[in-house]
Amino acid sequence: MHRPPVPSRHPGRQRRPAWALTVLTAALCAGQLAVPGLATPSAAAEPCRNPVTGDELPDGLGPYPLIQQLALPNAWDLSTGTGVTVGIVDSGVDARHPDLEGAVHRGSEYTTVNEERGFDRTSPQPEQDCAGHGTALAGLIAGRRTEGDRMTGVAPGASVYPVRVADGVDQVDVTLLAAAIDDAVDAGVGVLNLSFAFPVDHDALREAVGRAVAADVVVVAAAGNEGNNTVQDGRMYPAAYDGVLAVGSVDADGQPLENSNRGPWVDLAGYGENLTLVAPGGSGYRTDSGNSYAAAEVSGAAALVRALHPALSAAEVAERLLGSATPVGGGRNDRTGAGIVDPYRALTWMPGEDAREAGTGGRVTAADVPEDEPLLSDTAATALAWSGCLLLAVVLGLASAPAVRRAAGRGWRAGPEPGQRDTADPMASPAAGPPSAPRPRLAWLDGSDVPSPDDPKTTAPRNRTR
User: Annotated catalytic residue: which of 8, 108, 129, 133?
Assistant: First the structure.
């Protein structure tokens, strides 16, 4: 049976040699030095004898750093990934952890067997994750928000479908990995996380990834942690395959990690140094580094986009993630690709929109929240007021023109024009005389010739109420 070169997994700055990975994986998952290709389903199904476990979070711990680093509250206002399933081909997922409650499907388990097919498919135990790697990925992708947001995944409303590789992805034939990828695609996942990397292209792996891409799955893969000066042409697979989002990693300050593989095939970056991760064992947390975890963050962001924009194709989702990324070092480069994944910008990005200018120090920043502003600026409001006044003046001028003409005709005196008084007017004075007679002088207005109140000729009628 053909054995692939040992792939890159999740180690951080310090890498274990290939022989150490072999011994460690065998010790964790089988409890003895197993001969490759001879593991049996019953042996793989045994509980882990030396499981990876974690510790409880200390009291007084603040919100999970990724919440601020990826500006997640802005994204969660629009999407939490509800309804999207992310496939994880890895070491399994311990579904007992409280942070993963309701987030984990039963999934599948693949074990190497000494038969013509080379592997066997079974249903994994819910707690089966010897190495803890898959559980950590699941927590970063779909971990539920905890009290005080001390822990969360990028897409806390999404779910994960684990495909457990019982012997470890670094110890199996690529045909088994191809079958595991097909399994996740057949389960209907919308996003597929592949946090492993081989330095050599394999037909079976390439074809399986191609089938996933053709099935409209967003495929996300880690670029690897070798610093890639020691691998052939610098490419790692499946990250370098067409249609796959290859993810590198940055530190807490947004600067590329030295051991993160580089090349023009790297598409995006995520935070990958000293991350607090969900641990197997039913509870607890641990700390680790590596591109595996950066890839999980991109998978979570893809789930957010697929939930908010279900009509988008996988290629369109990838386009959003690339077009909205925060550039590192002024623009695209071989270490971080288009930049650090930015979930909120990916949710709101418009096709054709240019990448934002650098200037954030390589860090995703919270989007500016628009303040409540008046509908018109001060200048516009002033102009509108003057226009209204001028319009009112014109209207009043037009309406008053006839009255002005009448007033001019009577010599600007009060009352109707000569010859125009309505004799039927009940308020007309009985002593006014005929229309042609001159009007009496109202001398009493200036204090002279004040009429006597007893003079009936000068007493005006009064209104009465009955």
Answer: 133
| 366-398 tens-digit pLDDT | 443 333 344 444 555 555 555 665 666 555 555
125 pairs with which residues across the strands? none
84 with 191: CB under 8 angstroms?
Answer: yes
pLDDT tens digits, one per residue of 408-448: 555 545 455 544 444 444 443 344 444 444 433 333 333 34
Phi, psi (rounded to 5 degrees) for 185: -65, -45
Q: How far apart are CA 119 and CA 198, in angstroms?
A: 20
Buried b (16+ CB within 10 A) or exposed e, 37-74: bebebebbeeebeebbbbeeeeeeeebbebbbbbbbeb
Work out the burial of residue 88: count CB atoms within 10 Å of its CB; fewer than 13 is exposed, 13-18 middle, 19 or more buried: buried
Cα 251 from chain centroid (whole Å): 21
Q: How much is the mean pLDDT over the chain?
A: 77
DSSP 248: E
Cβ atoms 265, 332 nearer than 8 A: no
Per-residue confidence band for 317, with pLDDT thresholds at 50, 70 and 90: very high
Answer yes or no: are the C-beta atoms of 431 and 458 closer than 8 Å.
yes
Backbone torsions φ then ψ of 409, nearest 5 degrees: -70, -25
Cis peptide leading into residue 73 (ω within 30°): no
Q: How long, in residues, is the chain? A: 466
CB 419 within 8 A of CB 412: no
Pairwise CA distance, residues 268 & 220, whole Å: 10
Query: What region, left, alpha or beta, does residue 212 occupy, with left being phi > 0 and alpha being psi -120 to 50 degrees?
Result: alpha
* pLDDT the model gives residue 109: 95
Task: With 0.85 as the threshold, say if the pTM is over it.
Answer: no
Tens digit of pLDDT for each residue in 187-219?
999 999 999 999 999 999 999 999 999 999 999
292 has catalytic annotation: yes
For 215-242, what is the mean pLDDT?
Answer: 86
Active site residue 202: no
Which one of the listed residues 260, 289, 292, 299 is annotated catalytic?
Answer: 292
Point out the catalytic residue in the list 8, 90, 99, 202.
90
Residue 329 has a pLDDT of 85
Q: Kindly give the pairing relationship between strand 285-288 and strand 275-278.
A: antiparallel
Residue 133 bears catalytic tag: yes
